[in-house]
Amino acid sequence: SYNDPAASQRLAAKGEPVLAEPGKHVVLETATLQLEARVVSMGYGQGGGLPSNSYFDQMSLELAVWPKRD
């Protein structure tokens, strides 16, 4: 949905889209928690009549979560 304007508009209320790439770091925050995710590895699915790079058949993430400090 990163490159699909209709999907991006539908998901806009959820936050800014991020393109998944190996080594990419993303930080997500709530009122009390902070999460850092790093894409360790990933692979796009092929076929199924879907556009290329439209879904993942494999993705490994490294996650770290801690209480948010003021």
Categorize the overall geometry. Answer: flat
Record field, number of beta strands: 3
Strand arrangement in the largest pleated sheet: 1-2-3
The profile of the biggest β sheet is:
3 strands, antiparallel
Structural class: mainly beta
Measured between the Cα atoms of the first and last residue, the distance is 34 Å
Kindly estimate the percentage of residues that lie in beta strands according to DSSP. 35-45%
Average pLDDT over all residues:
90
Contiguous runs where pLDDT drops below 50 for at least 5 residues: none
Instruction: Determine the oligomeric state from the structure.
Output: single chain
Helix content, binned percent: 10-25%
Helix tally? 1
Tell me the radius of gyration: 14 Å
Instruction: List the helices and strands in order.
Output: HEEE
